[in-house]
Amino acid sequence: MDKQAAFSSDEMMGWIREMAAFGARRAGSPAGLANEDYLVAKLGEFGLANVRREPIPVEHYRPDISRVEIDTGAGFQPFNAQWIPYCRFTPAAGIESQLVFADSGAFSHTGDWAGKVVVTEIEFPVLDVALIGKFSMGKHDPDDNLKDIKHPATWVRLGWHLYRKAIERGAVGFIGILKDQPGGSYQMYAPYGFKEKDILDKPLPGFWVSRNDGAQIRKLAEEGAKVRLTLTGEREPAVTHNIVGEIPGETDEAVILHCHHDSPFVSPVEDASGCAVILALARHFAQAAKPRRKIIVLFTAGHFYGSIGTRTFIEDHAVDVVPKVALEITVEHVAREAIENAAGELVESGRAEGTGVFLPFNQAMVDAVLVNLQDNGVDRAFLLPPEGPLGPYPPTDGGDWYLSGVPLVNFISNPVYLLNAEDDFNWVDQPRLAKVAGAVAGIVEATEKLSKSAIGAVDFPLYKLKMKLIRYLVNWKTTKFGTRPVY
Fold it and tell me: 326 and 306 in one domain?
């Protein structure tokens, strides 16, 4: 059903600008708390019931001085560098040591790393959409150009395992050259705990540097040049919150409409854009006729803190909410596609970034999602299984719902600038905001006619088994060869 006319992309873009104006909305930060207040006020304004903050203790990490200086032969020279989240701070005067280069593609490493700063090249696997399409359950691609998408999967860092190796071998610091980052940015906020055992367990000061300086820094590391690292700031106990509101239904079953509310930088795409879509849906359903199922609007905290918000909500509501959820819907990143020009700069391709829509292994949900993508013009979209070559659950902030046995429909796009400071307003695909909101509204209405068991039914058991086997093979390959992707 075409529902996009019920939504205003201009209004949603205004909300995006208001959220981005708070700054980097990191867990426990003043900007993050201000954004939480904003979302609470909006849900109250829209008339939702039981609007609340659910607190989560975190550690607020705020660097102030961040410097990488290397002796190039003409004294110590500064290089553009971005601190890696939650790495240990140095003394105020910094630390001075010697560089050593570690080949991220090597099976083993020799030489003395004790007391030195390890330099390595960080690479990204290729996101080959044509290959991923072979595992899809359908698509809406009227211009037939999804197959043209082939760019680095910049949320996966191959070579990050050498940070752990550096700790084991007594190094005192780490520098990762972002060899494959399109556009040459060094301002990347990652890894952020999505698949780390402990986001706070980073006992070495660490930095990202640009591919533009990569060749020179690698050469200096191979020569054993002197380096000075300075990373100072504050780490203090803080609190962040899941923001929740409810639209009463006729039964005690529930549908969850969800996006995370934190961000790495100002980040209009990541994820003010997703929050704006969920806000629009919250108002739409609050003003509509009473739904069959209760609608829970959920803005989770700390996606960039190990997805702590989603995981905490599931744990805290394992009895009163989770068993009653018929469907969880996440929306993240309504984005324009970026490509590199001949000069290696990021420019717009003129297209939407391809969208993965993860959904249950059953025909009724495939049909409901596909018709609403088509009716609302959400093009360049693949329907993907909830587990398979991309992992044991969708690579979204809603993915943990799948592990909890809850059927989900998760929308996500992954443009190459997503985790970078270069994420700006021009990258939000403004016309697409209303289209995505319309598609989600249509999916919610279509599933009103389906029972909870029908939404989660497995109609394709052999296909599900095949996806499990592929997942295990991918995991075996990356683990065996030492790449150990971290998200």
Answer: yes
